[in-house]
Write a structure and sequence with these properties.
The complex is a heterodimer of chains A (about 200) and B (about 300). Chain A contains eight helices and no strands. Chain A is an all-alpha fold and about 200 residues long. In chain A, about 40% of the residues are buried. Chain B is α/β, with parallel strands linked by helices. Chain B has a single domain, classed as NADP-dependent oxidoreductase domain (TIM Barrel, Alpha-Beta Barrel). An eight-stranded parallel sheet of chain B has the order 3-4-5-6-7-8-9-10. In chain B, strand 3, helix 2 and strand 4 form a beta-alpha-beta unit. The radius of gyration of chain B is 18 Å and the shape is globular. Classes of the chains: A mainly alpha (about 200), B alpha/beta (about 300).
């Protein structure tokens, strides 16, 4: 990593891995036992998407994006990172987009998802985000409070939504709705990478 | 913070300054437990050569457990004679953590508070300084710097006015990672600044070519940031080399690698202080230890450089 690139990345990550893990733990402690509720909402969202009830799926996920934008980023993450408020607003905007799709029906697939590669890939992403993600942290030695759950933590919410979008959306709403999840997953990957190198 | 110097404090400072002035370019000797101090600017103040940075280490948000842990780090810093603490609005909650610690510990006489204005934080320089004072719970900053030269013309003019009005003690500029040295040189030459903060450590010595001689010539105090190159330098050496070479112990008064790296920096005649950052009390003790005892002479500094280059 060049000095210039390293500096630019570090500017956006002004905290240590110890502090970030503690932040995740504190968020887990604060929101418990809402993890069960948001996880159930996530499972319901997937089942509804597979049964071609995209409006209901977008309603559930849209609400949770607003929750993550405020609860994760603006309330907590922004304490550590000056960019936290901006990312929080981006998450709330993503929530608004999904709610718009829910109310208007724009971009939703007309028929139940077929076994196309994009749908299968979307389902795999959804299952990883929803069920696999919480266990990754546990397997790497984090506490149960650090188990990242859909609807409370940003990473699994972005990954699951990416999968859901591939399952149920078509046309420009599909492209528009994957931008913020993809950008966050990129930022999050770089964050973990930089934290490992410190 | 009360900035009216007491008679006793003034005498202590003058004495320390006099000693520092008498021994500016020699291997500086200090009592085994006395932190070496360097004079700054108009020579009316002297700073301990080991300060404290807060980048990343003090950004802990509102986490009660980590707030208390950092308070213990800063308690140790002041107990061991520390002075300059450097922070920035870019460092997330670090200024709030300083405020938390100072409320718990009280404001030590030795505190030399250094902050920075940084354009992306929003607001004018005066607004940023006012906001940062509230976060630190202090009445006045001893030093305010323009962070990474962002909008430096506008900010520096505002800070100089604040200094003239007695609202801040000194003004300065900062850079890091060896960036924009030409512009830093231009500012040092053309502007009336008291401090420059830049990256200087045993593996990053670009500043030796022009900026450090210029600072010496103009009487500008120099704060060396990234003394451990973000931590990688000391961790790398500790992984690869054990134990400390005997000559470093005998010639340079080093007891550990922190001594080796920090004494190299603060023994440069143009460096006023360096600002290692840490989250651990044990490491703070090591850092502060480097500011006392014998310092390497010019020949020993060259030997230190050669040794590190062979690794």
């Amino acid at each position: 990593m060049s000095v210039g690139v390293g500096y630019q990345l570090q500017q956006f990550i002004p905290f240590s891995s110890e502090v970030y893990l503690r932040l995740l733990e504190r968020i887990g402690e604060t929101f418990w036992p809402w993890h069960i509720v948001t996880l159930a909402m996530g499972v319901a969202a997937v089942l509804l998407a597979l049964k071609n009830h995209g409006r209901a799926t977008c309603l559930l996920t849209g609400l949770l994006w607003v929750v993550v934008g405020y609860g994760f980023f603006i309330q907590y993450y922004a304490e550590l990172n000056w960019a936290g408020d901006y990312i929080g607003f981006a998450f709330i905007a993503q929530g608004a987009l999904l709610l718009f799709v829910s109310f208007s029906g724009t971009g939703l697939a007309k028929t139940a998802p077929a076994k196309r590669p994009s749908v299968i890939f979307g389902l795999i992403l959804t299952l990883i985000g929803l069920l696999g993600w919480p266990f990754i942290g546990l397997l790497t030695g984090n506490s149960s409070y650090q188990a990242a759950v859909f609807g409370i933590y940003a990473d699994p919410t972005a990954l699951t939504t990416l999968g859901l979008a591939l399952i149920m959306l078509r046309g420009w709403p599909l492209w528009l709705s994957v931008i913020i999840p993809l950008l966050w997953l990129l930022v999050s990957s770089l964050t973990w990478w930089v934290l490992q190198t410190l | 913070m009360d900035h009216q110097f007491s008679r006793r404090k003034s005498i202590k400072l003058m004495a320390a300054t006099a000693v520092s002035l008498l021994l500016p370019s020699l291997p500086v000797l200090a009592g085994s437990n006395t932190l070496l101090r360097n004079p700054i600017s108009a020579k009316d103040h002297a700073l301990p050569v080991i300060g404290m940075g807060t980048w990343r280490t003090f950004n802990v948000g509102s986490d009660p457990k980590l707030l208390d842990a950092r308070t213990e780090v800063i308690r140790t810093f002041f107990e061991l004679g520390g002075g300059l603490v450097d922070s920035s609005s870019m460092y997330g909650s670090a200024p709030d953590v300083m405020g938390y610690a100072l409320q718990k510990l009280g404001i030590p006489d030795s505190l030399f508070s250094a902050e920075k204005v940084w354009s992306p934080a929003g607001g004018s320089a005066a607004e940023q300084v006012a906001e940062l004072k509230k976060r630190w719970f202090i009445d006045r900053f001893d030093l305010v710097q323009v962070h990474n030269l962002t909008d430096w013309r506008e900010h520096l003019a505002a800070l100089q006015q604040m200094k003239a009005d007695g609202k801040i003690g000194y003004v300065g500029i900062t850079t890091s990672h060896g960036r924009r040295h030409q512009e830093v040189e231009q500012i040092m030459t053309s502007q009336d600044i008291d401090f420059v903060q830049l990256t200087y450590n045993i593996t990053h010595r670009e500043a030796e070519k022009r900026l450090l001689p210029l600072a010496k010539e103009k009487g500008i105090a120099v704060i060396a940031n990234r003394p451990y190159d973000g931590g990688g330098l000391i961790k790398g050496i500790q992984r690869r080399v054990e134990p400390l070479p005997q000559w470093a112990i005998e010639e340079c008064g080093c007891n550990n690698w922190a001594d080796f790296l920090l004494k190299f920096i603060v023994s440069h005649p143009a460096i006023t202080c360096t600002i290692p950052a840490t989250t651990q009390v044990a490491h703070m003790r090591e850092n502060m230890g480097a500011g006392s005892g014998p310092m390497p002479a010019a020949t020993s500094r060259q030997r230190m450089q050669r040794f590190i280059e062979t690794l």
